[in-house]
């Protein structure tokens, strides 16, 4: 199997916040890998803009170091790195003032795709958008990429969307969620809508329940003060997990086209039932040995912010009414793992009787690590002695199935940035989708804030609070093991 690399059109990509952590860790290393693969055309240009004082050579030295640090050794070719760095230039720009904007305007070439990546805090979006138009750098064909958080509640999301809408049309705005760029997430749509095998079974008649898990082993660390104003609900559920839920639950769009896909995702969000307080579990990781707990990391002894959350959701539509969706995410858990598990119902009658250990069919989509899919099926245990049933996996990891080609699969940022250049918004969030997600999320947050409840403490390296186990047990179900 050979991966096809389709070059994009010539472009000027301006990265505001070009000296920041995201630019050094993800954006520039990802662009280098796209250059290495042959996807970047000869006359593409990357212009970094930030407030610090650098010339082109100094900035290129920063990115050379970033490539050495964040790109695998076997991908670091000295000649290719030099050629890539020659595409980079730097402009010192004052986002809130007038400094540097004329110099930036002079670097933008006519006849190119023009994309502007706002790798900065949302408070600067309006100022950047205003000055891009004031200095005639952006036009009606330009594209602008914005990073989450897309607000902290419905009111701030509406304000942010309104700010962007003053200068850009919705079809110019690319709200990036890197989870949607993962290969397995996109394969979820291929599995659902490209195979007759699954789609007829993808409903409440055949699916017992669905689990979505995003577990992390790290704590909040140096971002404790920021995280304490956010929490797992705002930081993960409202965007990443919500997007996974939409893709697993949405109706087939009429075409694999941006607005058709996003229309169906929006319908899922609007069909979500309100969540009862008994169906929400919140937790904070405690200290372990010399490792601080959440309270210490957040530097807030009175913190009531959750580093873990588990929810039971319902969707009121014909496809999913009666099928529960269980979502959980947390910091300092026992393993780093992200997966979606579709647990199918048992046959209505077993001709083999009740056999201990039999578990039924489960389709597991692994997002990280070891991206791939696993379908658990029932077979007869080999050997004499009667009909004994066992569960075995039909397993497909991308690394094994694609061999060497798996190494060339672009990561999320690589894919999404190239989609921006192509003008393909399918994997980006639309403004009304963001607002609908906040409209569902806000009452949940207001509910526990009004009640003044404190999250339960859980051990670092565990699967989360004990109450989260009870959330499933009372329904006669169990969480899947969190494992690599």
UniProtKB/TrEMBL annotation:
Q: Name one GO cellular component term.
A: cytosol
Is Amino-acid biosynthesis among this UniProt entry's keywords?
A: no
What start and end residues bound the annotated signal peptide? none
InterPro entries, per the entry: G6P_DH, G6P_DH_AS, G6P_DH_C, G6P_DH_NAD-bd, NAD(P)-bd_dom_sf
Keywords tagged on the record: Carbohydrate metabolism, Glucose metabolism, NADP, Oxidoreductase
SUPFAM superfamilies linked: Glyceraldehyde-3-phosphate dehydrogenase-like, C-terminal domain, NAD(P)-binding Rossmann-fold domains
Give the catalytic activity.
D-glucose 6-phosphate + NADP(+) = 6-phospho-D-glucono-1,5-lactone + NADPH + H(+)
Chain positions recorded as NADP(+) binding sites = 17-24, 51, 148
Q: Does the keyword rRNA-binding apply?
A: no
Locate the residues binding substrate: 178, 182, 216, 235, 331
Q: Please list where the region (Disordered) is annotated.
A: 280-301
Superkingdom, according to UniProt?
Answer: Bacteria
- What EC designation does it have? 1.1.1.49
Domain (Glucose-6-phosphate dehydrogenase NAD-binding) ranges: 14-187
Active-site residue numbers: 240
Q: Do you know which Gene3D superfamilies this protein is assigned to? A: Dihydrodipicolinate Reductase, domain 2, NAD(P)-binding Rossmann-like Domain
- Top EC class, one word: oxidoreductase
Example GO BP: pentose-phosphate shunt, oxidative branch
Q: In what pathway does it function?
A: Carbohydrate degradation; pentose phosphate pathway; D-ribulose 5-phosphate from D-glucose 6-phosphate (oxidative stage): step 1/3
- Residues forming the Glucose-6-phosphate dehydrogenase C-terminal domain are 189-480
One GO term in the molecular function aspect is: glucose-6-phosphate dehydrogenase activity
Role according to the record: Catalyzes the oxidation of glucose 6-phosphate to 6-phosphogluconolactone.
Give the family per the record: Belongs to the glucose-6-phosphate dehydrogenase family.
- Identify this protein by name: Glucose-6-phosphate 1-dehydrogenase
Question: Organism source for this protein?
Answer: Actibacterium mucosum KCTC 23349
